[in-house]
Amino acid sequence: MELRAINILSDFAREIETTATDGEKYTLIIPEPSAYVIQKILTNPNREPQEKRAKDIVAVKELLYHIEKSTEHKTKFSEVYKTLSVKQLKIIKQVCEENQIVLP
Fold first, then answer.
1. Which of the two ends of the chain, N or C, has the fewest CB atoms closer than 10 A to its terminal CB?
2. Are 87 and 39 in contact (CB under 8 A)?
3. Considering the entire predicted model, what is its pTM?
């Protein structure tokens, strides 16, 4: 797996403030949905065990549905997509064609 694919998750993260049931406050750092989608697509060809590949594609399609409905998330998707290398773009194109994925 290419390390750069994993770095996308931390490079495009957001902080979420939350309060637990006991009143304790936490700051969660989570990847942008767009970064998660791109990372899942990039790592899909090498995903082990192989059975998890289909599960990841379902998650990608579900998140893309929601990304498509949000101007903010579509803009963020474009921002993340523009950082990809030529090699990564080739992988994205291949996985999307094989799985009938349409990107925003």
1. N
2. no
3. 0.88
Residue 95 token pair? 């996985």
Q: How many CA atoms lie within 13 A of 16 on its CB side?
A: 9
Q: Nearest-5° angle of CA 30, CA 33, CA 38?
A: 115
Tell me the helix, strand and coil percentages in the chain, rounded to 5.
60, 15, 25
Retrieve residue 92's tokens.
Answer: 């994205």
Token digits for 5?
A: 């694919």
Express each pLDDT in 17-26 by its tens digit: 999 999 999 9
Listed in order, strand segments (DSSP E) in the chain are 13-19, 25-31
Query: Cα–Cα distance between 32 and 50 in angstroms, integer?
Result: 25
Residue 16 backbone phi and psi in degrees, to 5 = -120, 125
